[in-house]
Amino acid sequence: MAAERGRPRGRRAGGRVQRSSPRRPERSRRDTRGSRTAREGRRARLRRGLSATRASSAAKVLGMSTTRRAAVMAIVVCALAFTIAVPLRTYLSQKAEVAEQERRQEQLREQLDDLRDRRAELNDPAQVEAEARRRLRFVMPGETPYIVQLPEDEAAAERRRPDERQRPQGAWYERLWESASGP
Predict the structure, then answer these.
(1) What is the pLDDT of residues 1-22, one digit of tens each?
(2) Residue 182 and which of 38, 85, 163, 171 are 20 to 30 A apart at CA?
(3) Does residue 46 lie in a domain region?
(4) pLDDT tens across 53-67, in order?
(5) Residue bearing the bigger pLDDT, 125 or 167
(6) Where is the region Disordered (predicted)?
(7) What per-residue confidence (pLDDT) applies to 95?
(8) What is the pLDDT of residue 106?
(9) Is the model's pTM score more than 0.70?
(10) Which H, E and C letters describe the chain, residue by residue?
(11) In this structure, are residues 50 and 42 in contact, taking their beta carbons and an 8 Å threshold?
């Protein structure tokens, strides 16, 4: 029957009949580009349609509307944010605490260096003697001490102790009797 229609018959290795299609005339370059672009456009539309169909079918399977899906997504995002927030806050507070401890450690190292220098100074007997003379008013045997008090020294001493009250005169029982009996 195929031979009746004018188509030549041919045999392949599988015993099938191979039909030759009539040859299409060659197209110009413009036609080829236009058809290629059209084919790609059709493919893209098909892909979008398939993905939209898949998404809508997933929504149908879950039985959720777009609003519900958005709400679930918002809840998931908030849960993730809270899950990350606590460890982040802990990390930042520990980082600040470490910085504070490092600053404190540096201060203690400086203080330790100062104390080592002071210890080295006090190993010298001349320095110890000078400190004893200055702070304790130490006098060596055979020396005559002289203390000169200037008016500026008394004013400075009074300025250093403004909150110090004057001591009341008399014994404690006399003051008690005076306060109970009245002036």
Answers:
(1) 444 555 555 555 555 555 555 5
(2) 163
(3) yes
(4) 665 555 565 677 888
(5) 125
(6) 1-60, 150-183
(7) 96
(8) 97
(9) no
(10) CCCCCCCCCCECCCCCECCCCCCCCCCCHHHHHHHHHHHHHHHHHHHHHHHHHHHHHHHHHHCCCHHHHHHHHHHHHHHHHHHHHHHHHHHHHHHHHHHHHHHHHHHHHHHHHHHHHHHHHHCCHHHHHHHHHHHHCCCCCCCCCCCCCCHHHHHHHHHHCCCCCCCCCCCHHHHHHHHHHCC
(11) no
| Within a domain: 39 | yes
Beta carbons within 10 angstroms of residue 88's beta carbon: 11
Q: How many domains does the chain have?
A: 1
Q: Which amino acid is at 88?
A: L
What's CA 28's distance to the chain center, in Å? 64
Quickly state the pLDDT bin for 84 (edges 50, 70, 90): very high
| CA 114 – CA 123 distance, rounded (Å) | 14
In a domain, 27, yes or no: no
Residue 131 has pLDDT above 80, yes or no: yes
- Cβ atoms 69, 59 nearer than 8 A: yes
- Residue pair 127/121 in contact (Cβ under 8 Å)? The answer is yes
What pLDDT score does 2 carry? Answer: 47
- Give the type of residue at 167: R
Residue 38 belongs to domain spanning: 33-63
CA atoms within 13 A on the CB side of 142: 0
